[in-house]
Amino acid sequence: MENLLIKNVSVVPMTHADAVIQNGYIYIEKGVINALGSAPNHTLVEKADRVIDGEHLVAMPGLINGHTHTPMSVLRGYAGDLPLQQWLQEIWKIEAKMSSEDIYWAAMLSMVEMLKSGTTTFGDMYYGMDKVAEGVQASGMRALLTQGIIEQDGHGEDVLAECVDFVKRWHGKAEGRIQAILSPHAPYTCSPQLIEKLVEAAHDLDCSIHTHLNETRGKIDTIIERYGKRPIVLMDEIGLFSRHVIAAHGVHVSEEELEILARSQAGIIHNPKSNMKLGSGIAPIADMLERGIVVGLGTDGSASNNVLDMFEEMRFASFLQKVHLEDPTALSAYETLKLGTALGAQALGIESEIGTLEVGKKADLTLVNVDRTHALPLNDILSHLIYSAKADDVDYTIVNGRVLYEKGHVVTLDEEKIKWHVLESKNKLFGS
Fold it and tell me: What is the DSSP string of 383-402?
């Protein structure tokens, strides 16, 4: 593992709003940030195996895509303009035909897309997750992986046992870059009895739980009709929040449910573009943040977004709150960037390792080129990163101090080979 020095760079550490270092440096040793500040001394220059000149670059924490489904890249553009339940029915038909190889190559395509747009960490829920884990191992990315459980034909406990085995196989692998956790897909696809058993397993494994909660009014009504309670209230009563919970969506939440989320310190992953495309509604993110609820950002899958661009996701998140509340001060540039970095790490339960650029933390960072017509003049770096920056502005994506993407080239993966295999999968699943 090489020692890396990035010099002459603007540093946005995300430790507080005005902590921008102009003409700064970051020194990385053994995958960890060893030093950062205004100017490197000659000793660091001599110790570095590689020096990146950061002129016209902004260094920021690597973006964290807190909720996605990487194998769904092969479903991109399919079953569009449908409400959630109808969309799910169409998607499930194709997913039933997907092989482990289809899952592998589609997940790899998503990793290429994320690396090229500055994402270093992602939270992923799907099935056949051994192949996704293999992809993470090869790509060099960091990930929280979970085999989603959908209870069918009385086989919930069998599937839970398989998911427990997945956690035991993969947790801590890939030099510690993989965390494997448990996942009941949603309260409407898993019974309370099964979720209670999953919570017991999560205690035994000492792992987090990733699920979908309160995505649409229709799904909430389904739970109320079945159990007489709203989903988050029901989940609280059966003990879900006794573990750290990563809850995707949280669009329609009652006052009681907001209080539960604040008390439990669950991580909500906001998916603004997916929620907009599926017509799910607008999550009360600004209100959640005021209550101290931890909120990160995710793209959801390529089938409901359709891209995995976290810069675009951050921009949509900010604009959506501003127009919904009719308040231009809602979700400022700094607050929004926190959703994609520091708060995203906290929502996933890994804030001690990543999310900010600080000495002692893992060296997961993104270098953004601001020598662009749409960036000039650079009056405010934070404003630019949220309201102007594009995925194509990313010049370097670094995880554990290792350069994984550099100026158009994914170092660890064969992009052309991956694209070829995904097109083969598409032809098989949909017909050429």
Answer: HHHHHT--GGGEEEEEETTE
Query: What is the Cα–Cα distance from 85 to 108, expressed in whole angstroms?
Result: 27
Yes or no: say if 62 and 116 are a contact pair by the CB < 8 Å rule.
Answer: no
**Which residues share a beta bridge with 406?**
396, 409
- In the chain, which residues have pLDDT < 50? none
Q: Which domain holds residue 9?
A: 4-61+363-410
Give the CATH number of the domain where residue 387 resides: 2.30.40.10
271 within some domain:
yes
pLDDT at 49: 96
**CA nearest to 335, candidates 266, 287, 395:** 287
- Domain annotation covers residue 427: no
- 21-40 pLDDT per residue, tens: 999 999 999 999 999 999 87
Number of C-beta neighbours around residue 412 at 10 A: 16
Torsion sign (Cα): 254, 257, 259, 265: negative
Per-residue pLDDT, 432? 61
d(CA 45, CA 41): 7
Residues 6+ apart with CB under 8 A from 170: 129, 130, 133, 145, 178, 180
Which helix (DSSP H) or strand (DSSP E) does residue 178 occupy? strand 178-184
Distance CA 181, CA 202 (A): 8
Q: Helix axis angle, 129-139 relative to 156-170, nearest 10°? A: 20
State how many domains the chain has.
2
Note if the pTM is more than 0.90: yes
In this structure, the answer to whether residues 30 and 93 fall within a common structural domain is: no
Nearest to 35 by CA among 59, 55, 5, 12: 5
Question: Is 216 found in the same domain as 325?
Answer: yes
Residue 248 DSSP label: E
